[in-house]
Amino acid sequence: MSRTPGPSSSPPPASLPPSPPRPSATRRRPDAALGPVLTGALRHSSVLTTAACLFSVASAGAAVALPAALGHTLDLVLDSRPGGQAAIALCAVLLIAEVLLDALVALTGGVTSARSTAWLRRRGIDHLMSLAPHRVADHFTPGDLVTRLTGNAADAGTAPTTAATGLAALITPIGALIALALTDIWLAAVFLAGLPLLTWLLRTFARGSSDSVQRYQRVQADIATRLVEALGGARTIAAAGTERRERTRVLAPLCELGAQGRHMWQIYGRAVVGSSILVPLLTTAVLAVGGIRLAHGSLTVGELLAASRYAALTAGLGGVVGQLNALVRSRAAAHRTGELLTLPPVPHGSRPLPVDGRGRLELRAVTVVRGGAAVLRGVDLVVPGGVTMAVVGHSGAGKSLLAAVAGRLTDPDSGQVLLDGVPLCEADPAQLRREIGYAFERPVLFGDTVGAAIGFGPYEPPAHEIEAASRAAGADSFLRLLPDGYAAPLARAPLSGGEVQRLGLARAFAHAGRLLVLDDATSSLDSVTELHVSRALVHDVRTGSRLLIAHRVSSAARADLVAWMEHGRIRAVAPHDRLWADPDYRAVFAHTGDEENRAAS
Ligand SMILES: Nc1ncnc2c1ncn2[C@@H]1O[C@H](COP(=O)(O)OP(=O)(O)OP(=O)(O)O)[C@@H](O)[C@H]1O
Where's the ABC transmembrane type-1 domain (predicted)? Predict the structure, then answer.
């Protein structure tokens, strides 16, 4: 309730991060990023924001009315006029109302901020999940994203409350100035004389601190990005013995962070010092002139008392500095969170796949550009329904990208991909995820238990299907040795690289649809296990087409057809036996052992 003059309360620096590490998203028009966040947060908490606004305006009204009531009461008491008791009661009511309203502002404001923040985080994460993974990676690092969706979202979530209470922060001094003028026009004139200086102080603060806060948040994000990278590469760093160097790298932006932090404090400090000098000077000047006016009989004692309170409240305009600071911070944070929302989501259609489709995959003139260069160049390829096709080629030929395009993990820059005659971009996304299974070379496992990690997918398969998939992937034997079997906590299960890969395979088998894409998903398996998996794939997993990115001759030899890729193009499609006669084809497998090559030939 106390509206003390001078810049106040909230500390200047922003508390959260991220950075601009990757290009374009951060170069969009600021308003394009800001609009959806601020309007969305406001719309989402409109009732509470309106309540907070009304309470704070009412509280400001009580604050402005109180000095007049006090002054009037004092005059009544001093002159022994009737009505003193009623006036005292009115003062008490105004005082209590102000306290209660302030409490309500704090309550509704807190809830509004919490709800807006929760909405922003949900919206941000939903949007993130709707984006193409490579597009996200092009624009944001993981650390940057985390800070945008946590700290920045929390700061941005305070915007509605700050704006609502900011209105009251303006009403109080402006109302007090009007009341001062009504009490005595000369006193208001004295105050107005100093107003240009106060206005200049506020404008300088707002301008300087906005830049500084944005830079501070970016540097914080940079540190978060480096930290996430270091955590991801912890084993490599330990093996290389470069912990000290890494520590230095992660903390390198700290100097700039400190500089930006100091700069913010300097701007804030200058504003505080400026208004701390100006405000008492103005108040004192008003009091001095008020004293003269009292001596001349132009003011009563009660009016002087009211005038002194109004001068203090009017000078509370300096307190807007704190409010401005909070607004600047939440605006900068909203801008950072909003940049994520400006990335266009992957468009989807709703066409169903034909019920009797067998997983015929067709790529028509598919071109994919990465880093400014075409990585897949006009690829035409047909995987007939029910056929297993191995994709082979030298490292960097574009095999993984082809696998990503096949299951719509990324869209081609030109050309079309069709599953059972339906262009993937027109297909119902939920059905697409049920009908296309993926296993990767280095799968990431999700779930509380190892069983849940296998069941993780668009639907939860029953336990017996999870176990059957696990057997097919050669994972059942080692899972049963775990103390709790399939219920063993994933985080504490001691899994080798090959075992993780088998769990990834089991996950894909458990959700196998009409198309199964195995992107180098058996690379860590020994030959015996790989043979077991290949057989299980034919006999124990739902039938459909398979696209296998393969490096081993044995995998290519077992496939019905081989697509041989070279420099982003299909060089040939034929059974392995037929291609083997070509020395260039054999050179693709030059890295595999002679024994395996002999066996395959
Ligand atoms: N996001 C990207 N930005 C730039 N270049 C990319 C990107 N993704 C892939 N590439 C490039 O595309 C090429 C093909 O990559 P891809 O992973 O498909 O090769 P690959 O045939 O699967 O190789 P490997 O057998 O080594 O896994 C590589 O030269 C790679 O550097």
Answer: 51-329
